[in-house]
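Reminder: ligand-aware prediction takes two inputs, not one.
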Amino acid sequence: MNLHEYQGKEILSSFGVNIQRGIVATTADEAVEAAKKLTEETGTGWHVIKAQVHAGGRGKGGGVKLAKNLKEVKDIANEIIGMNLVTPQTSKEGKKVNQVLITEDVYYPGDNEPEEYYMSVLLDRAQGKNMIMYSPEGGMDIETVAEKTPDKIFTEVIDPATGILPFQARKVAFNLGLSGQAFKEMCKFVTNLYKAYEGSDSSLFEINPVLKTSDDKIMAVDSKVTLDDSALFRHKDYENMRDIREEDATEVEARKAGLSYVNLDGNVGCMVNGAGLAMATMDLIKQAGGEPANFLDVGGTADAKRVEEAFRLILKDEKVEAILINIFGGIVRCDRVAEGVVEAYKNLGDQIKVPIIVRLQGTNADLAKEIIDNSGLNVESAVLFQEAADKVHEVLK
Ligand code: GDP
Ligand code: MN
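Here is what comes back for the chain with guanosine-5'-diphosphate:
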């Protein structure tokens, strides 16, 4: 589950990480109130209005703007709220902005120039450890830094058993070229950032930029957070941070039905039980010359109701030209699934305009084939994996 910038900052703050302070607003009037409050609390004269959408590169798309007085706060908020923000990370239609974060301006002048760094904590699956990735080249997108100046990207591997050790925090601050007060602040910053990542069960905590202010304070100006869905049950308080407006509508519906569904770009819808078989089925579809339109795992209890639910989800996708059902009947018997398919087909009959290929293997597979073949419906049955692939190939021609 992805979070908005302001939600990530709330988590950071709760772990003692210094942040650029802000207040969320959904209207221009609220934005002005928020700005006044921030001025009272922080003494800031200028404010930044930041679109809250699940996409980076907002600055480049006109979703982050500086306001030098309350009139500008109001005008900019009016302009950004409700706009379709297009950034290098959104589709060309962009993302609708429902709310903005009004923040204090932290790039104020002083003894030194403000400096931007990059920092993220993520899971290194290959090593089975956590990793802090950081760079003195902050503010711009890290992919460009990685491509043009890979030597400016540092990594620090953190053993989850010990957590971040003091010498590692000092190494980070040193490699970022810091000294004095800023060095000390950075040690605290990175230590608490790691704790926020670990304590929230995140798989990614990215701060770009981390800012060194003109008076040597270190703070998070942005945050991009991905919480590990499998650990969400341990964080009931984060569950209400979910913003379904930012999520794929079909995926939201699937989650409600308890189905594991991921929308993809292809033309062959698939319904499978078990994640491993789903992956193998997607390979098979590609091999047959198609592209999977989705990942859909109906799980261990593929009864008629679930099959129908799954059918409905796949049919919502207008790109689908064929549907492949590939179920292994272990605990769930194939004849039950076949009945489910036939029943669902009858219920949805006129909505189904694409060919359906069903492969049922395992317990009572023979019976299942008979049910499908005798149903009189436009459903083809296949017994072998290859046979299913050939049939997909055939209907796509
Ligand atoms: P992103 O474009 O989606 O990554 O959004 P960020 O939160 O990273 O903001 C984009 C850029 O806005 C930053 O890199 C800064 O250059 C600028 N910015 C953010 N906060 C402030 C601020 O308080 N004052 C000024 N002057 N610029 C800011
Ligand atoms: Mn950013």
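The longest strand covers residues 202-212. The two ends are 38 Å apart (CA to CA). We will return to this case in the review session.
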